[in-house]
Structures are given as structure tokens and as C-alpha cells.
Design brief:
313 residues, mainly beta, 2 domains, seven-stranded mixed beta sheet, 4 helices, 14% helix
Length: 313
Amino acid sequence: MNVFCSMGCRAVVLLWGLGSFSAFAALTPADGQQINALVDSWNDALNRTESTPPQSLYRGKVEWYGQSLSAQQVVAREQAFLAKNSDYQQHIVTALNIQPAEDDKSVIVRFVKRAGTTGKMTNYPEEILLMRDAAGWRITRETDGITRANQSKEKSAEVARGKFDGQHLSYVWLREENPRTGGACSDDSDCDCSLWSSDAEVKPVKLSQCLVGNVETLPGLDDSGRDRVMVSPQWWSSVFRVVYLFDIQKKQWIQATSAFTRNLNMQPTETAPDLVKPDLQRPGRIRVTQAIYDDAKEVTTIDVISQPLWTLK
């Protein structure tokens, strides 16, 4: 789904905090400024508003949406794309989430980009790997979660695809963020997640106490035509996980039923269809397999309950 790296906002703001890099002492505020400037220049080049030579943004070899290319090849493809799509534009719609990569010379920059043409904008979970050398920070890998999920031979747990509004195919994913800064979470900060849709008209919905997690498409729960996305946020500790079901109604995320809990020790391999099934005896309801902890007895049991699917009136 390489619509071509999308981002916009000339005023890209890097919400920077050394607290987000407690495990990455080599990264300094000066690095943050340089990373911010690089992403800003990259974005401006794709919006045709940058005088910096685009090739200077990349290292000699680049992994570009799953292909190994030279910097010259990347720039040539970008310029050819822009020449054929004169009304193309892109915008950065979140703060930059910067995290350490494989070594102390690399960082992964994640954000949501909105790209396309007027009236046909799409959200993407963008990811850029930057490497630092004597010349400074340069792009060494560029992709997005949708492209990666489509290229993978295995089912993605990071991005789900379905007709969540009952009519249009779209992609959904979770993005973690420090609620105070919008940037990367750390082990000494709060952390929330936002559930995003590739549909630019659908605003993200926030989930508290969340460190990313899995998303999984769950079709066929009723006759509405809407697929649901099961969201299983991770957290620092505990074998219990709160599980949510969402769909899209009237261009907004709607929680489709009451949240429930699962126990990772007792339900380690269960997938969405194992946990939630249509209640065949009661249309419009589902049967949920959940883990319940009894405080008095200090025992966890697995129960199956019936609960309604919610519809926005």
C-alpha cells in the first residue's frame, strides 16, 4: 500500500524528552533537533517545498518499502511519482515517536501520515529508520505498517484489514503515545494507545494504559455486514489483558460490546474467533469466553457469557 510516504505539516513538531530514552543515553537534544529537521526536510521534499537535494536525506543504500535501492533510485522513483501525480500532498498528523533501534547509531521514527490527493486522503502508520554517521542522521529504511502487512507471508498482528463500517475496506492499527507529550512512552511514564483507521474521516479513539498490542479482524458476528476489530492492549505486567471490540458506525469508532478480560496463562493461544462467537440462539448478541478472577477465593475461572452488540442510533 505504498501510496508513497505521506506527511505534511511544514511545522513538524518533535515532542522531545530525554525521559523517553532512558535506555538510549547516546541520543542527545541536538540529535532530536537534527532528526526533527531531517523528517521536516523529507516531508517538504515530497510536498515540493524543499530546496535541500533529496538525495542528501538518504544513506547510500536504502530499504524502501521492501526493496533494496540506492539513494539515487529512491529519489528517481519519488520524482517520477510526483511528476505523474501533480496534486499529491501529505501531512504528518501525530507527534514523532522516536525509539532506539538495533544499535546506538539508529533510531526508528514512527508517526501517522495522511497522504493522497484532494478528497482522497488516506492514513498510514509510517516508519522510518534513521542511522547516524559522520555526516549526521540519514534515512536507511522507509516503509509503513500497511505495506509491511501486505508484503508479509504471515498474518499481521499489527495491522488488521476489513469492512469495519460494513461497506468499505480499510486498515486499522494501534499507536502508543505518552499522553503528556504525544511522543514515545518510557518505563517511567504513562502510556495510552490510539486506535487508527486508514479512513481519514474516522478520528482515532484512545485507550488508557496501553503499550500497543494486537489487532485482529473478526467477521460475521451479525447480519450488519460490519467486521469488528478485536483490540488486545499490552501492559507492563499482569497476565490479565482487557479486550475490546470496535467497529465503525457513522464515520466514528464505536465500542461494539462491553470489554472483557483474558488470562494469558490460561488462554495463551486463543485468537479472536476463539474468544468471541455469534450467539446463534440470540441474534444481535455474541458469546464471549472471558477470564474472571475471584478475589475471595483467589481463583481464576474461564466463563462463557452472552452479551449484546451495540448499535449507534
